[in-house]
Amino acid sequence: MSLKKYFNKPLTVALATVATATLAPVASAATFNFSYTSSLGTITATVDGTLQLDNNTVFVSSISNTTFNGSPVPALPFIGSFDALNLSGGSLTGQAVLSLDGSGLDFIACDNTACDNELFGFFTTNDIAGNVVTGFGFGGSYGSTFELFVLANYSLTTVPEPATVLGLLSVAGVGLLCKGRKLEG
User: Fold this and answer.
1) Which of 61, 100, 107 is nearest to 84 (CA)?
2) Which residues contact 104 (CB under 8 A, 6 or more apart)?
3) What is the DSSP code string of the chain?
4) Contact in structure between 43 and 138 (CB atoms under 8 Å)
5) Buried-state track 93-111, b at ≥16 Cβ within 10 A, e below 16
6) Which residues, other chains included, contact 171 with Cβ-Cβ below 8 Å and sequence gap of 6+?
C-alpha cells in the first residue's frame, strides 16, 4: 500500500516550505531586555541588535530606555567596542557585542563619540597574572566605577516578537487542520 494517497501534495509542499523557512539558521534582528547590577546600582535598557548564528552573540545596533536604579538617565546613542575605544584620543569605533550568556562582552554606550561623560560598558583585560578578565565600568549619572564583571548580575533576554508568535500559532493551526482530516483508506 502506497503512502502517497495519504498525503495532500500541495499541503505537504507548503508545510515543508514553512518548516524550512522557520528552521533555517540566519542571523536575525531582535529586541532584548538588558539588566546589570554593579556595586553602585542597577542599569536596565532596551537593546536592539542582531542575534548571530551561534544563538548567543548579539551585535548591538542601538540602546534605548536606559535607567539607573529605576530612574531615566541621559540617552546613550553612541555605541561601539569598549576594547577598541581609544581613551587617550577619544574615538569610538568597533562592533558593540553583548551575549545572552554573558560571555565575550565588548560593549560601550556613550552620550558622545569621545565617551568622556555619560557612559557604561563591558571590557576585557589581563590581570596581573595574565588571565583574561571581564570588567564593568561607567561614569556620569551612573556614578563612577571600574569593577570585575559578575555574571550572576547580568541579564540579556530576547523580547518575543508578535509576528513570531503569530507565525508559530499559524503553523500549529495548519497542523491541527491536517490532523483533523480523516484518512481515506
Assistant:
1) 107
2) 57, 97
3) --GGGGS-HHHHHHHHHHHHHHHS---EEEEEEEEEE-SS-EEEEEEEEEE-TTSSEEEEEEEEEEEETTEE-----EEE-TTT-BTTTTB--S--EEETTS-S-BEEEESSTT--SSEEEEEEEE-TTS-EEEEEEEEGGG--EEEE--GGGEEEEEPPPHHHHHHHHHHHHHHHHHHHSPPP-
4) yes
5) ebebbbbbebeebbbbbbb
6) 18, 22
- For residue 160, give the C-alpha cell: 518575543
| pLDDT tens digits, 84-117 | 875 545 678 889 999 999 988 899 998 888 888 8
For residue 165, what is its C-alpha cell?
A: 508568535
Report the predicted TM-score, pTM, of the whole model to 2 decimal places: 0.71
CA 67 to chain centre: 18
Q: Hey, how many other C-beta atoms are within 10 angstroms of the C-beta on 119?
A: 24
List all residues 6 or more positions away from 20 whose beta carbon is below 8 Å from its beta carbon.
Answer: none
